[in-house]
Write a structure and sequence with these properties.
With 381 residues, the chain is mainly α. The chain has 15 helices and eight strands. The longest helix is centred in the N-terminal third of the chain and has 41 residues.
Length: 381
């Protein structure tokens, strides 16, 4: 009997231990989410000092809480980007470098996060006019791509290709985009939202860099498949429906550029109905709730963005496209980069737009939150 009780206690410990670990992990995750939410609020209010401190706290909490690369990377990325937007490129480089080194030690478990961290690091190095360091960092990314799934590998190659094209390394950039296209072809599943999103990014890159035929070749089979599925009564999930609509909108743009306005209009009308069931009902509610006496938001104060040292040296020009929400306080909130430029210009665009002031939208005299898309141009005069 004396030997049975200790054995029973030990068995109970082994039974309870997984539950205790799971509870501790859940507590750590909840704490991490709370800190990230506070950091995002500070960042949205352009309180970069508080945002940096909170994202650093979130990063430390993800590491100490054992939350894994999926939580460590977002906190680290937001920390580095916040530092870059605030103009502290040295601090941003240090944060991205530390994160890349951490993921490198984890090998295959964090291969995608390591590649993402190194891409961010390369952009920061380029912004600081350290192009040789940036190219060496991109070379390290290329060495770690083999273990990634095709859609992820394609996404990384697209970013690398865009970087080279933006710095006028045309042959290298085009080769990387072709490698991205080959990687995506390995997946080739138009019912996979990640594949469709990556293909849309590739098509957009081809379009921007004047390779319209390649853009059309990427989009055409996806749009054809989406049309067949929707005409057959398919009910895609929200993410897939959004990805199909994005592909359709890009393809309609290609058709317009080719002068086929009729086909473009027909497709544009079709893709409005490519929605998940929940999205469709929400769209109907919005249509029923047509606003009267609507006044669009109007820009009343504009701050021009600054060039980074690296962008000046490379003479980079182009547009950064941002999604924002104009709220009744007249400020741009929830600023997200839709179409970036390298050499840190995307971050300077974000910083500039957060300083813009608007006359808020209104309907029937009531102020509204209105989503909008803005373009920030970088041009040498």
């Amino acid at each position: 009997m004396r030997g049975v009780l200790p054995a029973l206690r030990l068995s109970l410990v082994f039974l309870i231990l997984p539950f205790l670990r799971e509870a501790a992990w859940a507590d750590a995750l909840a704490a991490w989410q709370a800190v990230v939410a506070r950091a995002a609020e500070a960042e949205d209010a352009a309180d970069y000092k508080s945002a940096k401190a909170l994202f650093r706290e979130a990063y430390a909490a993800a590491v100490s809480g054992g939350l894994g690369p999926a939580r460590v990377w977002p906190a680290c990325e937001r920390l580095a980007v916040t530092q870059a937007v605030a103009g502290n490129l040295g601090g941003a480089q240090k944060s991205a470098g530390e994160c890349a080194a951490r993921f490198a030690r984890q090998r295959a478990d964090a291969a995608l996060q390591e590649a993402s961290a190194r891409l961010l690091l390369a952009d920061i190095q380029a912004a600081r006019a350290r192009l040789d360091d940036a190219m060496a960092t991109l070379g390290a990314v290329r060495q770690r791509l083999a273990g990634l799934p095709p859609a992820d590998r394609g996404g990384v190659l697209i970013e690398m290709g865009e970087f080279h094209l933006a710095v006028d390394m045309q042959a290298r950039g085009a080769a990387l985009l072709e490698a991205a296209q080959a990687a995506l072809a390995e997946s080739g599943d138009p019912d996979d939202a990640r594949y469709v999103d990556a293909s849309c990014n590739l098509a957009e890159s081809y379009r921007i860099y004047h390779r319209r035929r390649r853009s059309k070749a990427v989009l055409q089979p996806i749009v054809r498949h989406a049309r067949e599925r929707m005409q057959g009564g398919a009910t895609p999930g929200r993410e897939l429906a959004a990805a199909w609509r994005k592909a359709g909108a890009l393809y309609a743009g290609v058709l317009r550029a080719e002068g086929d306005d009729l086909k473009a209009r027909v497709l544009s009308a079709e893709i409005r109905h490519w929605r998940a069931p929940a999205d469709e009902s929400a769209a109907k509610r919005r249509r029923r709730r047509r606003l009267r006496n609507y006044v669009s938001p109007r820009l009343v104060k504009k701050t021009e963005p600054r060039y980074t040292p690296g962008a000046v040296a490379a003479k980079v020009q182009g547009e950064v496209v941002l999604a924002i929400e104009v709220r009744p306080d007249g400020r741009a909130h929830d600023v997200r980069v839709i179409r970036p430029l390298p050499y840190g210009l995307s971050w300077n665009a974000v910083r500039a737009v957060r300083k813009w002031r608007f006359e808020a939208a209104a309907a029937n005299g009531e102020p509204l939150n209105v989503p909008a898309e803005v373009r920030v141009s970088f041009r040498f005069r």
